[in-house]
Design a protein that fits this description.
Shape: elongated
Number of domains: 2
Radius of gyration: 24 Å
CATH architecture of the largest domain: Orthogonal Bundle
Distance between the termini: 21 Å
Number of strands: 0
CATH class of the largest domain: Mainly Alpha
CATH topology of the largest domain: MetI-like fold
Largest sheet: none
Length: 309
Amino acid sequence: MFRFASFGLVLFGVSTLAFALGALAPGDPAELFLERALGRPPTESQIAEQRQVMGLDRTLPRRYAAWLSGLLHGDLGQSWGAGRSVASVLADNAPQTAVLAVTSLLLSLGVSLPLGVASAARPHATVDRASRAAAVVGASIPTFFLGYLMMWIFGVKLGLLPIFGSGSPIYVVLPALTLSFATTGVFTRVIRTGTLAALQEDYVRAALARGASARAALIRHALRNALIPLITVAGLAFGQLLGGAVIVEWIFSWPGLGKLGVDAIHNRDYPLIVGWMLCMGLMAMLTNLAADLACAWADPRVRLRPRDA
């Protein structure tokens, strides 16, 4: 119950912050909307009428109270730009972001697991040195620079992969590679460190003393315990992938929540901005909850127990 109550408090804080930042932002959303619709500067009377239609003629507390009342009834309001409900706009774009984030996470895990185990099996060998160097490079390169570099190499020079939009599964390759580059290095270091620590434990030595091979002791015993910190880091990283998707989706014109949020901010679509922030916050919190449950599954010792009297 405490966790769900904290979810509600965090989402309440996110929505309040979004409304406050929208009120402090320069410019008039009604004027911007009319300029795009009419193709010319609107008159003062047109702006006043549009402000009334958008509800901007009311004070910020009254607008927020009306939005909060609608939220309690499952209504996120109407998007000014799309002309339909915020919930439907988010529902149309959320699957694309989920595909991108999940693909990036699977790519990171698929590369980092064998690389981290190989580094732990032979510390300071060539593979270990190369993985550490790659981790430093991955953490140092800005996402936007890497995205444009990927586009130039694989899209422009080699012509192997599409660089804009979505469609067949091949369109997700470049955005997913860009998004997963930094997390792959982090995961590799976590797996290496956890596996090296587990190899020094008594249960691994006991398995070796009972006749288990070095490979079996590494995979069956050491790696499973090394996965506990990886699950925690992966849960946090997935939330970061959702946040990083904002830049990557905008660069590759990927029609997900990230690009939707950038467009909403550019268009001053306040109902959509607040709904987008709530959606991103909720997804991050659910990801952390899933990581906690996965840790409890992998290691029963981390399960919550009632306190002793």
